[in-house]
TrEMBL record:
Keywords: Cell membrane, Membrane, Transmembrane, Transmembrane helix, Transport. This is DHA2 family efflux MFS transporter permease subunit. InterPro entries: MFS, MFS_dom, MFS_trans_sf, Sugar_transporter_CS. The keyword Membrane applies. It is a multi-pass membrane protein. PANTHER family: BLR6921 PROTEIN, MAJOR FACILITATOR SUPERFAMILY MULTIDRUG TRANSPORTER MFSC. The keyword Transmembrane helix applies. SUPFAM superfamilies: MFS general substrate transporter.
Length: 472
């Protein structure tokens, strides 16, 4: 029997569903743009005559700009106005999307993808901070459930749409199809989101901290993204990773002495542990949506369209679990719900790791996909809640930037680790097995590695929520 009060059962606050819908759609665009090019990459390479090294920058240019600028983007939302920064980000994103769809050359496409990342780095933390400020109490849990649903569905939808659009209309449609959605959101935001309050003049921009952390994140993201291709002992990769670590140390030193730090210590004390777990979840998230379509196409022989369509059950499970996650959290506590989601995710990935070269969809992929989707959706909503738990309105944009940054860095780190694991396993099996069985062994190793990362996240999440928030 549901004994919750009417206030607890309220789906949203008196703000209404309109602002939530437009903010969630903005987030959907960000996640979609991360994954929608994956299946289209072979067609892009053929259409623009790109080398394999250049082709990787269609993905990396977006990830570098997005991951490096999320913290400054979040702080800009707090200082200059969240709606203003959201509209700026949407404008940059829409123009970059149009340029990508019409790109006459590889250089233009790569530059447009970088500009998309800049726009996304502005709009993503601004949209999340607006949600945190506008929805309070039980309504915030429901709003974050919707946020998690569209974030989770966006990854799977990107793979699906990429396959469908590439096969039916060509790779340019992958970009052009998202432009009308961006324009609609841009037109609706001024109608549904209230104007920004007057800017406070008491806080200055931390330029040294902003420059240092941006350079650090660029170096780390580049090193992690390119290490698997260039070799981890390559001077460029070693130099980038070393510079990133040194710059992070310099950033920490600057922040401790700055009167207006980009990342105040109070933020790290409040949500540092949750963001640590978010790094691990990001590693699983990106690794899964990279390796599952590859496994289906390279090992099982699926075409782009079929590989996209088979993501639908997982997308549905992520969406449903994200929307329902606030209910068990209110009844059993946030910590218990988060751990349960991560345990489901671990089990689903371990199950998927048993699929071989001849696995059928119904027997080898469908069951694990549903379990993974349920765990991923639940864990993402609860970790987003934990990553903003106790954050005041003045830091909402920064908290939104931080949670997105840790997920991006985790994704780059996880993909690097899982690629190394998969490659080593494939090379080891190649000597005494067929090419398909060797590839299958590599992908299974990647899924098992992701399961171990998820299990570690479940252990660490025992201390993620603080005090009473863990039980409500």
């Amino acid at each position: 029997m549901d004994t919750s009060s009417p206030a607890t059962r309220a789906p949203v606050s008196r703000v209404g569903v309109g602002p939530l819908a437009v903010l969630a759609t903005a987030q959907f665009l960000v996640v979609l743009s991360t994954s929608i090019v994956n299946v289209a990459l072979p067609a892009i390479r053929s259409g623009l005559g790109m080398s394999p090294a250049a082709l990787s920058w269609v993905v990396n240019a977006y990830l570098l700009a997005f991951g490096a600028l999320l913290l400054p983007g979040g702080r800009a939302a707090d200082l200059f106005g969240r709606r203003r920064v959201l509209l700026t980000g949407l404008t940059v994103f829409a123009l970059a999307t149009l340029t990508a769809g019409l790109a006459p050359s590889a250089a233009t496409l790569i530059a447009a993808r970088a500009a998309q990342g800049v726009g996304a780095a502005l709009l993503a933390p601004a949209a999340l901070s607006l949600l945190l400020v506008m929805y309070q109490g039980p309504a915030r849990g429901t709003a974050l459930g919707v946020w998690g649903a569209v974030s989770g569905a966006g990854g799977a939808a990107g793979v699906l749409l990429s396959g469908v659009l590439t096969q039916v209309s060509g790779w340019r449609a992958v970009f052009i199809a998202t432009l009308p959605v961006a324009l609609v959101v841009l037109a609706v935001v001024p109608r549904l989101v209230p104007p920004d309050a007057a800017r406070s003049t008491g806080t200055r921009i931390d330029l040294p901290g902003t420059a240092t952390v941006t350079a650090a994140l660029v170096a780390l993201t580049y090193g992690l993204a390119m290490g698997g291709r260039s070799g981890w002992t390559s001077p460029a990769i070693v130099g980038a990773l070393t510079a990133g670590v040194i710059l992070l140390g310099a950033f920490w030193w600057i922040e401790r002495r700055s009167p207006d730090p980009l990342v105040p210590p109070r933020i790290l004390r409040a949500v540092g542990r949750a963001n640590l777990v978010m790094i691990l979840l990001g590693a699983v998230w990106v690794g899964l949506f990279y390796y599952l379509p590859l496994y289906q196409q390279q090992v099982l022989g699926y075409g782009p369209l079929l590989a996209g369509l088979t993501q639908l059950p997982m997308a549905a499970a992520i969406t449903l679990a994200s929307a329902l996650a606030p209910r068990p959290a209110r009844r059993y506590g946030h910590r218990a719900t988060l751990v349960t989601g991560l345990v489901l995710l671990t089990g689903g990935l371990a199950w998927l790791a048993q699929a071989g070269a001849g696995a059928g969809f119904a027997t080898g992929i469908l069951g694990p996909s549903l379990l993974i989707g349920a765990g991923l959706g639940t864990a993402f909503v609860e970790l987003t809640t934990a990553s903003t738990d106790g954050v005041t309105g003045r830091d909402a944009g920064l908290a939104g930037g931080l949670v997105n940054t840790t997920r991006q860095i985790g994704g780059a780190l996880g993909l690097a680790i899982l690629t190394a694991v998969a490659t080593a396993r494939t090379d080891r099996v190649t000597a005494h097995a067929s090419a398909s069985h060797a590839l299958a062994a590599g992908h299974r190793a990647a899924f098992l590695g992701a399961a171990l990362i998820a299990a570690l996240a479940a252990v660490l999440s025992q201390t993620t929520f603080r005090g009473a928030s863990a039980e409500r």
